[in-house]
Amino acid sequence: MRVLLIEDNQILGAAIRDQIIVDGHGVDFVSRLDEAAEYMQATGYDLVLLDLMLPDGLGLNFLKTLRSQGDVTPVIILTALDQISDRIAGLDAGADDYMVKPFNLFELSARLKSVSRRYAGNPNPIISHGELEINLSAKSIHRMGKNINLTAKEWTIFETFIQRPDMLFSKTQLEDSLYAYDREIESNAIEVHISRLRKKLGKNIIRTARGVGYRLGDK
Questions:
Q1: Residue 176 pLDDT more than 80?
Q2: How many Å apart are CA 174 and CA 179, to the nearest integer?
Q3: How many alpha carbons lie under 13 Å from residue 196 in its C-beta half-sphere?
Q4: Are 184 and 30 in contact (CB under 8 A)?
Q5: Contact 215, 169 (CB under 8 A)
Q6: In whole angstroms, what is the distance from residue 143 CA to residue 129 CA?
Q7: Which of 69, 125, 57 lies closest to 94, judged by CA?
Q8: Residue 186: pLDDT band by 50, 70, 90 thresholds?
Q9: E strand residue ranges, the chain
Q10: For residues 130 and 201, is the Cβ–Cβ distance under 8 A?
Q11: DSSP label at 151?
Q12: pLDDT for 36-46, tens place per residue?
């Protein structure tokens, strides 16, 4: 999952960024709304974490603009504004969740997972794909009761497919999913990880669309 974090408190933002990376996601961290708008135009994000009080404007107005443009990217508001009226205003503007500072970083991780599953059509963290039983929360895979171990990078790529089973992903999109681990991705990294996933999970688990990209294989 690729996350855009919009937060002007550098200490808090760095802590949130590090937690997202530990959870195995890619993250871009900006402190201004004009930067956020540029990033969103250039990159497809799976989720946005949005502070409401920023140096160049109100996060609520930014959110309203996104929704008025038809952008349905999930948004979780992170703010010190704790009045019920503030929560209602945020949700009415199109936020998917609302967290009041200070909050526990592990709770934030759980909220990210919940919103991600909701938009991927997987409200249940345990899903099946053929003979595979996949626990999205525990990041574990079993086949006929036997655990299959994946590396962190292999899991990140596989989760990208399983969260959007009907989507065709380009090599660049898959490389973006690994951004949390390496700022510079080797040219053949995706091919190597997909080859290993096929060896561990089955040769047809990921299909290649030549010259276009990859998609999850049939069950």
A1: no
A2: 9
A3: 15
A4: no
A5: yes
A6: 10
A7: 69
A8: confident
A9: 2-6, 26-30, 47-51, 53-54, 57-58, 75-79, 97-100, 126-129, 132-135, 140-143, 146-148, 206-209, 213-216
A10: no
A11: -
A12: 999 988 877 88
The full length of the chain comes to 219
How many other C-beta atoms are found inside a 10 Å radius of the C-beta of residue 214? 22
Specify the DSSP class assigned to residue 98: E
Residues sharing a CB contact under 8 Å with residue 158, sequence separation 6 or more, in sequence order: 141, 150, 197, 201
Tell me the sheet residues that pair with 48. Answer: 4, 75
pTM of the model: 0.64
Rounded Cα distance between 24 and 85, Å, is: 34
Tokens for 109, please give them. 């991780």
CA distance 178 to 103: 27
Q: Average pLDDT over the chain, rounded to whole?
A: 87
Backbone angles phi, psi at 204, to 5 degrees: -100, 10
Place of tokens 């688990």: 205
